[in-house]
């Protein structure tokens, strides 16, 4: 409980700092900060935390569980859409369906999932969160997510550009470099500075979340957003989390996987919605609601698992 309260103080405090700064600073600042974290801060964090992570055990099953969670979320969202059509004789427009599916599929397993995992479980099991995000959520967002956006949106010209963005993603490259860099001994002072830089990047990522939330003005589409969040943050973690022992995943490793599954919708859903002309209002509402719902669901998952 003490760890959870400390985590809440840090999470809420840093996000509030971002909210305040987002309203005071020019709109270009969050963009520049996001670029810095994407190209510099994030890769440094991954390299540093990988040096301290335990890569033994069934760690490669983490991406497989991520894909299972993604497909289950998409399936349940599709069932919800069909149920709405059956009981109300109305069906959302295609752009709304696309955003609803995306919000139910992919979570914020990087900017939020990483610091929460590090705070509640520690460095030893960080690699489980890292594999879940980089080899699961990333391709779920910009792979399957883009394919769905092409299907439900109106703009298909950027498909190859998004594919190129995946292959040139510095986070993926830093992941590979970090695996190799683990074998190299470095001076204690350098190790210390690398660790501090990594944690600074984590703190800045939480500030960035607050800055981006300060720019979200729309609270429309509450019913659809509520359905997506119920699937993404409640049903999927509960169903798949209950089956983790059958995969041989228990203890702290299972806790990391459940925490990653229970994260709110990723910012990538908004990026994809804007790129492919999906329902941006629904994406915005799901992002804002999810960040608040997390404060309630997080202790539930820690207690259950």
From TrEMBL:
Keywords: Cell membrane, Membrane, Transmembrane, Transmembrane helix, Transport. One of its GO terms (biological process) is transmembrane transport. GO terms for cellular component: membrane. The keyword Transport applies. It is found in: Membrane. The chain crosses the membrane at residues 6-24, 59-79, 100-119, 125-150, 162-184, 196-213, 234-262, 282-304. It is a multi-pass membrane protein. InterPro entries: Mem_transp_PIN-like (IPR004776). This is AEC family transporter.
């Amino acid at each position: 409980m003490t760890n959870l309260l400390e985590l809440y103080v840090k999470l809420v405090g840093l996000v509030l700092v971002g909210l305040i700064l987002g309203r005071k600073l020019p709109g270009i600042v969050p963009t520049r900060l996001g670029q810095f974290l994407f190209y510099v801060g994030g890769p440094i964090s991954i390299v540093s935390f990988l040096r301290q992570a335990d890569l033994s055990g069934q760690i490669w099953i983490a991406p497989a569980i991520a894909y299972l969670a993604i497909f289950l979320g998409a399936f349940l969202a599709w069932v919800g859409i069909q149920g709405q059509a059956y009981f109300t004789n109305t069906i959302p427009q295609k752009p709304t369906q696309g955003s609803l599916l995306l919000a139910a599929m992919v979570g914020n397993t990087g900017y939020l999932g990483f610091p929460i995992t590090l705070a509640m479980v520690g460095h030893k099991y960080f690699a489980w969160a890292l594999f879940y995000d980089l080899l699961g959520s990333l391709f779920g967002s910009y792979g399957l997510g883009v394919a769905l956006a092409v299907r439900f949106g109106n703009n298909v010209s950027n498909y190859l550009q998004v594919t190129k963005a995946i292959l040139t993603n510095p986070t993926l490259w830093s992941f590979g470099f970090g695996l190799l860099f683990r074998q190299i001994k470095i001076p204690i002072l350098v190790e210390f500075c690398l660790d501090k830089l990594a944690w600074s990047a984590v703190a800045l990522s939480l500030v960035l979340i607050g800055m981006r939330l300060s720019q979200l003005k729309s609270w429309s589409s509450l019913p659809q957003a509520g359905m997506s969040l119920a699937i993404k943050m409640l049903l999927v973690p509960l169903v798949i989390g209950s089956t983790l022992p059958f995969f041989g995943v228990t203890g702290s490793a299972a806790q990391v996987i459940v925490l990653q599954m229970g994260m709110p919708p990723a910012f990538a859903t908004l990026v994809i919605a804007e790129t492919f002309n999906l329902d941006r209002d629904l994406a915005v509402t799901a992002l804002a609601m999810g960040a608040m719902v997390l404060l309630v669901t997080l202790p539930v998952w820690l207690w259950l698992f």
